């Protein structure tokens, strides 16, 4: 195993600082703690460092709370797996553990106790919706002012920052592309309106239609649950309206792939008879036949930013109380203020239309 | 939120038992604790239950330790995502948190401190290899007799149980299928021999060849790292040997998909010019063109069984010390003995050839 000196050299700090971090003695600048933790991790010393470094009342774990849906293998969806990869990379680099917790959707979830019992220092919420119990649970969390970040679901509430993507612009670009190609009767297979990202996509779609003097036809709106199976099932309803349609937008690639499969089973060729555009630019989108025209969403980056935002918030809190390594107290206070300001803003990452052959 | 009575009714226990679990008062049978924790979780009470229930020195977290490879999005691979889904479902049901931790491959990892510092109660090791530092780390864990399970990597060492799959039989079936179709010059694109599952696949391949009076031709053996890119790169070497080949086995679907892509770029049609068989039966395998003939591995079930094995071990340990709800002491002792016996055995799940169109 590495020596204290090796860790100090790699981190670019003194051996005394390594000891202070390792033993949790005295206040340590968060950035320094992280450099030492990263160096110690790289050299195989991470656990001892954590054990001591977090002895001051932190768990060293960031909670990632996911909805538990029986029979759905969440990790196997592009959406969650990419977001988790981004979160995981940032937490690993910072020397934190990632505590995965499932909540039962539609039941109240007691986020606050996770902090009180020191199971987590901060929390990232994935797959949240505006269903009453879910919303009440995250609002209770925000009321306590605890460090958290909601991923890809906007609640537009102080203390409940969101890192998401600009789905309105994404769906707008997809609809615009179809309209520019001369299509006029464009259907939309969306997800539940309990997700702000579904609502945003619908808004983008509607806006593009409006600019062409059209409005959404309720008969051409379909709803799935973002699973491939739900896309395949929707194909039945889409098929019944086939004469009224000359294009289909789908709110994710999985539903698009399911819908294309279901349409093919009914003898409908994509894109010849009905062009289809997916959403996400998942791995599968380039593998299918035909490869999907789709909208790229930087989910990995979304996970990274969400994780960075809660770590920045934790660093700010640390700075407030005890950051003696700062040149002066004012600098420490500024960090905190920035951290809080940042936390109050929703961050929406850009999306991009990827043109392949399904449309 | 639910009342104590509702939790008691759902769990089928008395209200007093719910209180004992909630408050961690007195010894509780592990099965009872789990029933109550599951009921409380379902009704939105899981955190308080855990906070109290684990106050007796348990963290309530099971560690899942993954290799960290820069630029590789581990969660986005079928292999890890399915195993994690299985683990996650079991831990959720049992009321445990899943603490994801990355180790740096090739560096010593201090598993033991994770237990000592109460970050985890047990640990599941994914993506392990027989590289010296990795092996030394897990052997140190086994020496301490701590509850753990290695997933899909056999170390064949007491105290280091493994839940994996019968990859020897899987590769045998794939090679047998090609041989039965009249192919005689079958190449093999395998992963690193530091993984026991690579070695097992090679053994199955060799055995099938041997039964047909053939032996592996070193010129027809290729190595990738289980990534699509490595398959695409291997296509160059495969193309150079094309005249000597009439079939290719690949050790996973990603490499097969990459190899098919690389071969196609060189004008080689699959399966017409060169039949290819993948391995894993990943989501992607049925989406590609051509759909892959492959070997199904029950990764989700593998994750479930691995998680169940460490929970059983924890229950056994609890039983040893304090399971006063058992009818008598002998029953408790039997549980422990079974737990330990089970832990010493490697479990290999069955694999199955799935025939599609790439071969």
Automatic annotation (TrEMBL), chains A, B:
Gene Ontology molecular-function annotations: DNA binding
Keywords: DNA-binding, Transcription, Transcription regulation
Signal sequence residues: none
Residue span(s) of domain HTH lacI-type: 2-56
Highest taxon above the source species: Bacteria
Nuclease as UniProt keyword: no
InterPro entries: HTH_LacI (IPR000843), LacI/GalR-like_sensor (IPR046335), Lambda_DNA-bd_dom_sf (IPR010982), Peripla_BP_I (IPR028082)
Annotated protein name in UniProt: LacI family DNA-binding transcriptional regulator
């Amino acid at each position: 195993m590495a020596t204290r000196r090796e860790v100090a050299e790699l981190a670019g700090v003194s051996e005394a600082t390594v000891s202070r971090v390792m033993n949790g003695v005295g206040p340590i600048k968060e950035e320094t703690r992280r450099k030492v933790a990263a160096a110690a991790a790289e050299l195989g010393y991470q656990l001892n460092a954590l054990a001591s470094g977090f002895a001051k009342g932190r768990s060293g774990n960031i909670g990632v709370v996911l909805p538990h849906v029986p029979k759905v293998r969440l990790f196997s969806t592009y959406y969650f797996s990419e977001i988790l990869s981004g979160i995981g990379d940032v937490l690993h680099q910072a020397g934190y553990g990632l505590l995965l917790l499932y909540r039962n959707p539609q039941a109240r979830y007691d986020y606050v106790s996770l902090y009180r019992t020191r199971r987590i220092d901060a929390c990232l919420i994935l797959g949240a919706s505006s269903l009453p119990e879910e919303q009440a649970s995250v609002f209770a969390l925000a009321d306590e002012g605890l460090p958290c970040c909601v991923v890809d679901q906007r609640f537009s509430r102080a203390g409940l920052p969101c890192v998401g993507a600009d789905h309105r612009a994404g769906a707008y670009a997809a609809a615009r592309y179809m309209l520019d190609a001369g299509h006029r009767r464009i259907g939309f297979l969306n997800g539940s309106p309990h997700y702000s990202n579904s609502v945003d996509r619908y808004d983008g779609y509607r806006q593009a239609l409006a600019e062409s003097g059209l409005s959404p036809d309720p008969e051409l709106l379909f709803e799935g649950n973002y699973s491939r199976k739900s896309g395949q099932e929707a194909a039945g309803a889409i098929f019944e309206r086939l004469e009224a349609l000359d294009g289909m937008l789908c709110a994710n690639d999985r539903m698009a792939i399911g819908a294309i499969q279901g349409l093919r089973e009914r003898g409908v060729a994509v894109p010849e008879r009905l062009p289809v555009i997916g959403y996400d630019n998942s791995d599968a989108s380039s593998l299918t036949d035909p490869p999907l025209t789709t909208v790229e969403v930087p989910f990995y980056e979304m996970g990274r930013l969400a994780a960075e935002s809660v770590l920045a918030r934790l660093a700010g809190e640390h700075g407030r109380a005890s950051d003696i390594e700062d040149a002066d107290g004012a600098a420490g206070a500024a960090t905190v203020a920035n951290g809080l300001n940042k936390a109050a803003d929703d961050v929406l990452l850009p999306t991009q239309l990827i043109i392949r052959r399904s449309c």
